[in-house]
Amino acid sequence: MYKPLHATAILLSALAATSSAYPGWSSVDMMTQLHARASDTSTEALGDLSDLSDSSLTPVGKAIKAMLTSASATATSDEKYGGDVPELGSKECAADKCCVYQHFGAELAGLFVNGDGCTDPARASIRLGFHDAAGWSKATGPGGGADGSLVLAPEEIGRPLNDGLEEIVGQMKKWFAKYSEFGAGMADMIQFAANAGTVLCPGGPRVVTLVGRRDSSEAAPDGLLPDVNDPADKLVGLFVNKTISPPGLAALIGAHTASRQRTVDASRANAPQDSTPGVWDTLYYQQTLNGAPEEVFTFKSDTVLSKDSRTGPAFQAFADGQPLWAAAYAREYLRLSLLGVENINDLTDCTKALPFKGN
Fold first, then answer.
1. What is each CA distance from 217 to 58, 132, 184, 222, 318, in whole angstroms?
2. Residue 30 has pLDDT above 70, yes or no
3. How is the cofactor bound (predicted)?
4. Which residues are catalytic?
5. 274 is in an annotated binding site
């Protein structure tokens, strides 16, 4: 089912590209930096996978645990829906948990990409996926995470750090009203749409996408989302408490390659975070490290992370390492999308339902 990438080859080619692009960094320097952080990777099991014995894991549970606990694991898949897709509402569709998401994905494909690349609804869906899942921490106990509460609990959308998500939250409610009667869940729809937005952006990875999460209308604990004015120590600590390492944080923040800010500085609404917001590329890392053109709005938090000793080397490695970053992002986003999920062993892999570019 899962087709692993050749991680070593990807790493070496990315390092070679990085060392040639940044004369101050030889390949030996970069290897030393990354080896020094080899133990600083996100390899903690999550949810029920932390307690279940390997012998009691389902095939999906085993595969996901391997992806979460191996630093070289791959969390992408090229699996595609085979044959004709059953009609929505038919017995055949009801018998396949992924069928409703195939129909949902087809609708998203027509909305998430145009001649300029990925669209505002795509980037909003990616941000919604981040914010719903990130409302969880080891320090706050049960509750929160990828449970749909950002849409289902009215309190959450009123929090300042969720400003700008009102429109996509309203749209997600409409999609839920349309597809929930056929078995789609809110938490799953949020994460499915986030991964659809990613893969439909030119260059975006096809992240393993799971369904079967439990929805919650109870608001996630407050204070668990990053702020653009936070210092590096706070940001790193916030994500370590989500089981995400500093290099993992650097990989995830690369999603800003497709973002446009609207609320941080209203006078510069719609300013992108790199010069190609319709493309999922590594220009974000390059311009954050080396200075961006005037039309680009760089968040203070991105600047401090690019300079921090715990996250900066990953910024350097990703700057000219698209395959390296794509693999790292997929692995870390899979982890993020499972925060707070306590029934991972029972989930279904519906990556095949994600739209393919050109659908």
1. 28, 12, 16, 14, 37
2. no
3. Binds 1 heme b (iron(II)-protoporphyrin IX) group per subunit.
4. 131
5. yes
